Amino acid sequence: MVDAVLGSLGIEALFDNVTVGCEVANGKPAPDIYLHVAGLLGVRPENCLVFEDVPAGILAGKRAGMEVCAVEDAFSREFAGEKRRLADYFITDYFELLNGELR
Q1: What crossing angle do the helices spanning 55-63 and 32-41 adopt, rounded to 10°?
Q2: Which residue from 102, 69, 66 is spatially nearest to 87, judged by alpha carbons?
Q3: Which long-range contacts (CB under 8 A, 24 or more apart) does 79-86 make?
Q4: Taking a C-beta distance cutoff of 8 angstroms, is the pair 76, 56 a contact?
Q5: Could you tell me the domains of the chain?
């Protein structure tokens, strides 16, 4: 499904790696998927920035030793306060990154 979505958007070439939860032993909030991808990319966890939209994903990133930016979305709007508390940063729109508004 991920490949189909990336392909339909024409953005598959923008990703060095695409990994899904079934490729690791434990799902979020365990850090497995983030540690696995960091290993594939040859990047130390402390040099990674995770973008997540749900609290379990934020916890997974933090448990992996990575900085985490929570992303606002309609699906998890009710968890906005928890996401702000758990994450290092919070954005409501990815354009905030381009404008230097990471907070």
Answers
A1: 50
A2: 69
A3: 79/54, 79/55, 82/55, 83/52, 83/53, 83/54, 83/55, 83/58, 86/55, 86/58, 86/59, 86/62
A4: no
A5: 2-98 (3.40.50.1000)
Question: 68-103 pLDDT, tens per residue?
Answer: 999 999 999 999 999 999 999 999 988 998 888 776
Do the Cβ atoms of 44 and 61 come closer than 8 Å?
Answer: no
Which residue type sits at 3? Answer: D
Inter-residue contact 57 to 27 (CB < 8 Å)? no
Backbone angles phi, psi at 89, to 5 degrees: -140, 165
Rounded to two decimals, the pTM is 0.89
Task: Give the tokens for residue 24.
Answer: 């690791």
